[in-house]
């Protein structure tokens, strides 16, 4: 996948991207369960339903565009991660993927912990009743206010991201008369994306403290001397949308080597390691993600093996999946508007949302699937590009896909796997009103984040 996009988004006049699936799927009405949320199904009338409710009724009641999250699927995925990692490990859902108070309550009920990376996420978590000791606080530039808020709330851990932060957190904790449990985030010289990983000697990035040149060892040395800190472990996060476990293997090996070095130098065996998030999901039928139990088994085996070799007690492992839990559980429902056929090229299908509700295609060249969901069709497939209504040619939702050639304005189409990093990265570009998030379950629908209104826009604009 290309990582270099046109400044205004991916190029928009090319024909067929190399290496892309070149033929339409055998059945345009089929819904690949890999890509769609668990309860999504086509009913006898040909309409698609989610959580037991047809999309036409959902569009009627909640409008479009809107995100619909399948609560049954979310809970099942959260539970699958929890069960796969068992009692000797912890799962921290990464709230940056998507966070709301309902989500926090579901996580709490399903026994998951929560990773937050801003004061706003922390406030949301606390206000929905997540116990503070089950929250990890992240960020490469936490403000003094955020650190104070986190320590006062009693968060279970702060993940230290820099040398300055080691001192800052220690100082604030001490002045509050407490000792804060912390991990140190290291960069292990591994960067992983999808099917490959790259091992680099030095990490050219803003996060964490490099293992290279003894920097992480020095960070541990400093943290161990400060009264305000209780160093409980080492943290590593290697990338996003990863299918290949090899990157985690290298990361785990390097983190365990640091634990062994710490034991040799200080006589201390740090009790925890966190291997971060980044596990991939299926955006299209071409993607083959791993199941949580396979991931848990692979990570457990790697860490146990490396610890045995280094004669270390196996530390408690934690992971931070965001996308892998929430990503597949939601779809975005759009109404088709303008249709512009370009003879011999493709058909542009405009929808009533766009880059304001899904920036990932413009930002990362991300790939998505799309289907006609308000009815079935036996018409011939046509190559489409689903675009938004923003004043920008890079405003693309789905780069290349097939929809039936009888598609018409007023039809409903849905983009699956939009649970992660869509609503959480949504914007008001062109003064778009950010869509609602509606939870559906067993025939009932409930707004968990309401649609923005023009009043909301004007309330911020003080004139
Ligand atoms: N832990 C840490 C420390 C992270 O930085 C992240 C993501 C996660 C966990 C969760 O990663 P996940 O399992 O959700 O992949 N906006 C981008 C993704 C940015 C991820 C940043 N960190 C996207 O839309 O693909």
Automatic annotation (TrEMBL):
Coiled coil: none
Domain Orn/DAP/Arg decarboxylase 2 N-terminal: residue ranges: 73-327
GO molecular function: diaminopimelate decarboxylase activity
Name of one Pfam family that matches: Orn_DAP_Arg_deC
Pathway: Amino-acid biosynthesis; L-lysine biosynthesis via DAP pathway; L-lysine from DL-2,6-diaminopimelate: step 1/1
Cofactor(s) of this protein: pyridoxal 5'-phosphate
Location of N6-(pyridoxal phosphate)lysine modifications: 96
Enzyme class, UniProt record, top EC level: lyase
Enzyme Commission code: 4.1.1.20
Binding-site residues, pyridoxal 5'-phosphate: 278, 320-323, 421
Residue ranges constituting the Orn/DAP/Arg decarboxylase 2 C-terminal domain according to the UniProt record: 332-419
Keyword set, alphabetical order: Amino-acid biosynthesis, Decarboxylase, Lyase, Lysine biosynthesis, Pyridoxal phosphate
SUPFAM superfamilies: Alanine racemase C-terminal domain-like, PLP-binding barrel
Gene3D superfamilies registered for this protein in UniProt: Alanine racemase, Lyase, Ornithine Decarboxylase, Chain A, domain 1
Catalytic activity: meso-2,6-diaminopimelate + H(+) = L-lysine + CO2
Annotated residues for binding of substrate: 323, 360, 364, 392, 421
Family indicated by similarity: Belongs to the Orn/Lys/Arg decarboxylase class-II family. LysA subfamily.
Quaternary structure note: Homodimer.
Function: Specifically catalyzes the decarboxylation of meso-diaminopimelate (meso-DAP) to L-lysine.
Record-linked PANTHER family: DIAMINOPIMELATE DECARBOXYLASE, GROUP IV DECARBOXYLASE
Name of the protein: Diaminopimelate decarboxylase
């Amino acid at each position: 996948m290309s990582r270099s996009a046109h400044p205004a988004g991916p190029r928009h006049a090319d024909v067929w991207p190399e290496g892309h699936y070149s033929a339409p799927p055998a059945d345009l009405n089929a819904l690949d369960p890999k890509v769609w949320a668990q309860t999504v199904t086509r009913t006898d009338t040909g309409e698609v339903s989610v959580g037991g409710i047809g999309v036409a009724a959902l569009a009627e009641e909640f409008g479009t565009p809107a995100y619909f999250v399948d609560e049954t699927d979310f809970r099942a995925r959260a539970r699958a991660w929890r069960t796969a990692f068992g009692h000797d490990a912890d799962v921290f859902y990464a709230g940056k993927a998507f966070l709301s108070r309902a989500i926090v309550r579901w996580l709490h009920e399903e026994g998951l912990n929560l990773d937050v990376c801003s004061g706003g996420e922390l406030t949301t978590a606390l206000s929905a009743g997540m116990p503070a000791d089950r929250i990890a606080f992240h960020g490469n530039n936490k403000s003094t206010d955020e650190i104070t808020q986190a320590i006062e709330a009693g968060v279970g851990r702060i993940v230290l991201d820099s040398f300055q932060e080691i001192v800052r957190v220690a100082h604030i904790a001490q002045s509050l008369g407490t000792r804060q449990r912390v991990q140190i985030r290291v960069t292990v010289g591994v960067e992983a994306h999808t099917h490959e990983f790259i091992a680099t000697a030095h990490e050219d990035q803003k996060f964490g403290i490099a293992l290279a040149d003894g920097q992480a060892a020095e960070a541990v040395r400093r943290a161990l001397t400060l009264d305000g800190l209780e160093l409980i472990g080492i943290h590593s996060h290697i990338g996003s949308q990863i299918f290949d476990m090899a990157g985690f293997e290298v990361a785990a090996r390097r983190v365990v080597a640091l634990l062994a070095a710490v034991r040799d130098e200080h006589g201390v065996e740090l009790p925890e390691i966190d291997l971060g998030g980044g596990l991939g999901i299926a955006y299209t039928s071409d993607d083959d993600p791993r199941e949580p139990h396979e991931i848990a088994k692979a990570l457990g085996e790697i860490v146990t093996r490396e610890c045995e070799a280094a004669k270390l007690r196996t530390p408690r492992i934690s992971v931070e999946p965001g996308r892998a839990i929430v990503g597949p559980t939601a779809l975005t429902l759009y109404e088709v508007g303008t249709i512009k056929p370009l003879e011999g090229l493709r058909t542009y299908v405009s929808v009533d949302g766009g880059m304001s509700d899904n920036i990932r295609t413009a930002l990362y060249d991300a790939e998505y699937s799309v289907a006609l969901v308000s009815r079935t069709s036996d018409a011939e497939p046509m190559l489409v590009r689903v675009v938004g209504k923003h004043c920008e040619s890079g405003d693309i939702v789905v780069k290349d896909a097939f929809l039936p050639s009888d598609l018409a304005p007023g039809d409903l189409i849905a983009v699956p796997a939009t649970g992660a990093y869509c609503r959480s990265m949504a914007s008001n570009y062109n003064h778009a009103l950010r869509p609602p998030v509606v939870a559906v379950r067993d025939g009932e629908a409930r707004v968990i984040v309401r649609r923005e209104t023009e009043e909301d826009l004007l309330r911020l604009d003080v004139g």
